[in-house]
Every structure is written in C-alpha cells, then in structure tokens.
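Propose amino acids for all 279 sites.
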C-alpha cells in the first residue's frame, strides 16, 4: 500500500487534460495507491473535497490545467487559492498545451502551491491537440497526447510510487519550472495580474434554435439562455460553446481562421521543445 493518498484535480474542456489524469490514476491505482478524483467541471461539493485534502497528513495533490493565454485557467487557480496551508502536503502540477507555447502555467501553479506550503514531488507538461484548431483538416498537435506522451506520464506515476513508499519524495525546486527565456517569461508573467481576456461572442438569433447544448457543455456554467445564449463572467474562453453548437450560431469576434493563423505562427516562431517533459 502506498504511503500517500493521491488527490487528482483537473479541468479539461477539450479532453486532453482528462486523458493525462486517466493515465495517472490508472498507473497509481495499479501500484496500489488510493486516488480520489475531482473534475472541476462537474457539479460537486468542492469544499468537502478540499476539507478532506487539507486534513490528510499523507496527501499528495495532483492538479492539472490546460494552458490558455500562456497561463493556467482560472478554475484551477481558484481551487488552489481555496486550499488551506499545509506543512506536510506534496503536489504534482501538470499542464497540457497545444504546441503554440506552454507559457508560465506550470510555474504559476507551482508558485501558488508552494505559497500554501506544498512541496513539489514532480511536474509535467504534456503535448496535446490545440483545441482552437479543431475545424482544420490538420489540427495543431493532432494525435497528442500520444502513446509516447502517456508512457512518460506512467513513468512519473511509477516514480511517485517508488519514492513515496518511504513516506517522502525528492523535492522539485520551483525555479525548474521557470524554463521560458527571460524575455518571454517576463511577457507571460505580466499577464498574471491582468484581467482574463475573453474574445467577445455574438449569437445569430436567426440561426440559434435555443437548444441549450452550449449551456449544458460549458465547463463552468457560464452560458445561460435568455432566451438566446448569454455569456457570464465565469467564461474563460474555452470555446466549447462554439465547438458544440449544432447550428454554428455562436460567432467569435475574432474569426477562427485568424485564431488558427496566429497559433500556427506561434508554433513556428517559438518552437518549444521537448513537446512533453517530466520534472
């Protein structure tokens, strides 16, 4: 039996972060560990989950976010902010990114967790299909996370099991996650104190059937029908509503073709390597 209880928390609007969570959970459970999962998109009593996590002296928190705007998404950062201080907790932040840039999301999450008293037992950034290029014939990052990516995640889980069996881990310094160039890091970190940017969206009332699929699919319940879709303050621009609308009635102010062009330019210009890396 593992010396630690693992708490696995994530949000995954487009499925990639959930894939990583699935692999982590399966490998840890295969090794005899207990894993309590929490998808932040599912309605549940997060306060009770946090209370249990806070009170567990053998807790290891695995927490995952997709990278948006070079940062971790607001629901994940809000979850971290709600955690209590700890003197015994360990953590493993992980992100999925669509090959444009992984930004400072891992460093951002790690810093917030370290500020709560958590020590990092590891971290991971994992290549994924870029969710904003789904209409393309060849989406950016297609096929990721692939089997090679998932094998690295299994190896991370095996390392946690091996190190943790004696009741501790090798601590990962936060500065290991500050891997962008100094110029890029400064640019990305400047965004952390700015309001979250959301691309305005309009609804074509002549096309919208008020079916409610956008509201049902929204991972943060930010879409309401009044009588047509209205987008609330919790929206963090995952574009799930745009993607699932059967009538293509939700139109972003920035055309999808322009968004895709910008993404492909970043992929070519930044060329971040390796695509998947375990720390």
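Proposal:
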């Amino acid at each position: 039996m593992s010396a630690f209880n693992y708490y696995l928390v994530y949000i995954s609007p487009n499925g990639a972060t959930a894939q990583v969570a699935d692999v982590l959970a399966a490998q840890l459970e295969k090794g005899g560990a207990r894993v309590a999962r929490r998808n932040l998109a599912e309605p549940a009593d997060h306060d009770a989950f946090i209370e249990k996590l806070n009170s567990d002296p053998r807790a290891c928190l695995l927490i995952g976010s997709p990278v948006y705007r070079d940062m971790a998404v607001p629901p994940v950062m809000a979850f971290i902010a709600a955690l209590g201080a700890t003197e015994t907790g360990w953590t493993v932040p992980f992100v999925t990114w669509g090959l444009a840039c992984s930004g400072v999301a891992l460093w951002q999450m790690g810093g917030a967790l370290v500020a709560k008293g958590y020590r990092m037992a590891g971290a991971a950034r994992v290549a994924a299909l870029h969710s904003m290029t789904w209409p393309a014939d060849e989406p950016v990052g297609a096929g990721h996370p692939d089997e090679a990516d998932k094998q690295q995640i299994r190896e991370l889980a095996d390392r946690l099991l091996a190190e943790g069996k004696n009741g501790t881990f090798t601590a990962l310094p936060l500065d290991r996650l500050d891997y962008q160039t100094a110029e890029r890091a400064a640019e990305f970190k400047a965004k952390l104190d700015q309001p979250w940017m959301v691309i305005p969206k309009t609804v074509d009332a002549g096309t919208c059937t008020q079916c409610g699929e956008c509201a049902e699919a929204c991972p943060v319940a930010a879409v309401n029908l009044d009588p047509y879709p209205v987008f609330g303050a919790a929206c963090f621009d995952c574009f799930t509503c745009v993607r699932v609308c059967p009538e293509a009635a939700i139109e972003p102010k920035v055309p999808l073709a322009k968004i895709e062009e910008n993404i492909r330019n970043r992929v070519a210009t930044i060329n971040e390597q390796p695509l998947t890396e375990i720390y």
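The two ends are 24 Å apart (CA to CA). The chain has a mean pLDDT of 96.
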